[in-house]
Design goal:
The complex is a heterodimer. By secondary structure, chain A is mainly alpha-helical. Chain A is built from 14 helices and no strands. In chain A, helix 9 (257-271) crosses helix 11 and helix 11 packs antiparallel against helix 12. The radius of gyration of chain A is 20 Å and the shape is globular. Chain B is rod-shaped and about 55 Å long. The model of chain B has no long low-confidence stretch (mean pLDDT 76). Helix content of chain B is 71%, strand content 0%. Classes of the chains: A mainly alpha, B mainly alpha. The A-B interface holds A 239, 242-243, 246, 249-250, 252-254, 279-282, 284-285, 288, 330, 332, 343-346 and B 1, 3-4, 7-8, 10-11, 14-15, 18, 21-22, 25-29.
Chain lengths: 406, 49
């Protein structure tokens, strides 16, 4: 199997782009919290970048991508510590790049997914509990679902469900888990206003930049498909930002700048599973739907009295669900011959497959996260003390503060 | 495939509808409490100086 240097270059650059998304997420979230919880929120992303980078090479990649253990549910342990994961291509995943390049690209997906969840329990969870939760969740939730959808022999992969870059694996899994975690952990003593909107806009901009690696990189080669994924990613994101700002203008009376940033992220989420299968008009409607559905979902938060602090469920859970379903509506083999036609191209069965993937991911992520949070809560406790929460997590958990302005 | 061609029309109509909304929607929400009239006045005076 011959290595293509162009494909390898693109995949390694994409890996670096996706790596940037995790600290970018930290800035996106960091601007939305109060000023006494900025460092802890940034740390929730940065620490996971370190934590899962090691977990992934030790056992995460093996559980997700090594040959199936028999039931389509999980890989084996044959690739622990990257045994047998070398520099020759693995044709099951990417035929023209070194196997380790594919592994590294997938590592950045595994990193950002638990980091997404941290927005739901911001400003009230102890550092120790967060570390344990992230490690258990990555191993028991992310790795199996990645295997179902992308692993050779995974049951959703075998079923024919389409997920180009992680609508189910990354966004539904994290969004649903965020909702469950927020319910179990409970509300903050006092909610915060965003302390630095500029930080959030910068974070959203860097997320958008990095997402080109996330989606266009998922072609695993440089060429027509990666170009198509790049274009539809940008288009859907732009359309979702425009839609959200318009809907918020209709609803609240002014075009919200933070809303535009949230809308763009919702568009990025929604186009993720579809980015290798839909054309540009489909991407516009996916962006439109993301702007409307995720905005409406966000309005439910105060009514349900669930303190998903940074709206992870509304943006990632609902955005990912819409994107996965929309893939079954708008997909066409004219874009990707290795994919499938969707409903509008005369294949309603694909929509059913997408619904099965969505339902299974919702169910497993919810149940597994419930168990993980409960176990941590009864052993070391999920929340900090009330006095520590009032002081802020930066000081109480890290002994540092973000700003020293006189 | 005809259904996919209709998607083009819906996409164009959606974008045009948004553009119309930006032109006709009024700005009607109250100014946030943090931006008080006194601060706004001070900002204007500083800019004028």
């Amino acid at each position: 199997m011959k290595i293509d240097t162009g494909d390898t270059s693109w995949l390694l650059i994409s890996t670096a782009l996706v790596m940037l998304m995790t600290p970018a997420l930290g800035f996106f979230y960091g601007g939305l919290v109060g000023k006494k919880n900025v460092l802890s929120t940034l740390t929730h992303s940065f620490f996971i970048l370190c934590l899962i980078s090691v977990q992934w090479v030790l056992w995460g990649y093996s559980l997700a991508f090594s040959p199936d253990s028999g039931a389509g549910l999980i890989g084996g342990l044959g690739w622990v510590a990257l045994k047998s994961v070398g520099f020759d291509p693995n044709p099951d995943y990417a035929a023209t790049v070194p196997h380790q390049a594919f592994m590294a690209f997938q590592m950045m997906f595994a990193v950002i997914t638990p980091a997404l969840i941290t927005g739901s329990f911001a400003e009230r969870v102890s550092f120790k509990a967060y570390v344990l939760f992230s490690l258990l969740w990555a191993t028991l939730v992310y790795d199996p679902i990645a295997h179902w959808v992308w692993g050779t022999g995974g049951w959703l992969h075998t079923l024919g469900a389409l997920d180009f870059a992680g609508g189910t694996v990354v966004h539904i899994s994290s969004g649903v888990s965020a909702l469950v975690a927020a319910i179990l952990i409970g509300r903050r003593l006092k909610t915060s206003e965003p302390h630095d909107a500029t930080m959030t806009i910068l974070g959203a901009s860097l997320l958008w930049f990095g997402w080109f690696g996330f989606n266009a990189g998922s072609a695993l080669a440089s060429g027509g498909l990666s170009t198509s994924a790049f274009v539809v990613t940008n288009t859907a994101t732009a359309m979702a930002g425009l839609t959200w700002i318009t809907v918020s203008w209709l609803h609240r009376g002014r075009p919200s700048v933070l809303g535009m940033a949230a809308g763009a992220v919702a568009g990025l989420v929604a186009i993720t599973p579809a980015s290798g299968f839909v054309d540009v008009s489909g991407s516009i409607l996916i962006g439109l739907g993301a702007g409307v559905f995720c905005y409406l979902a966000m309005q439910l938060r105060p009514r349900l009295k669930i303190d998903d602090a940074l709206d992870v469920w509304a943006v990632h859970g609902i955005g990912g669900t819409w994107g996965a379903i929309a893939t079954g509506i708008f997909a066409t083999v004219a874009i990707n011959a290795a994919g499938a036609n969707g409903l509008l191209a005369g294949n309603p069965e694909q929509l059913l497959k997408q619904a099965v993937a969505v339902g299974a991911t919702w169910l497993y992520a919810a149940v597994a996260t419930f168990v993980i949070v409960k176990v941590i809560d009864v052993t070391i406790g999920m929340r900090v003390k009330e006095s520590e929460e009032s002081l802020g997590l930066d000081a109480s958990q890290h002994g540092e503060i973000a700003y020293q302005l006189d | 495939m005809e259904a996919l061609e209709n998607v083009d029309i819906v996409a164009i109509a959606s974008f045009v509808a948004l553009a119309v909304a930006w032109v006709i929607l009024p700005l009607r929400a109250p100014i946030p409490s943090a931006a008080t009239p006194a601060v706004a006045l001070e900002t204007l005076e500083t800019a004028a100086a």
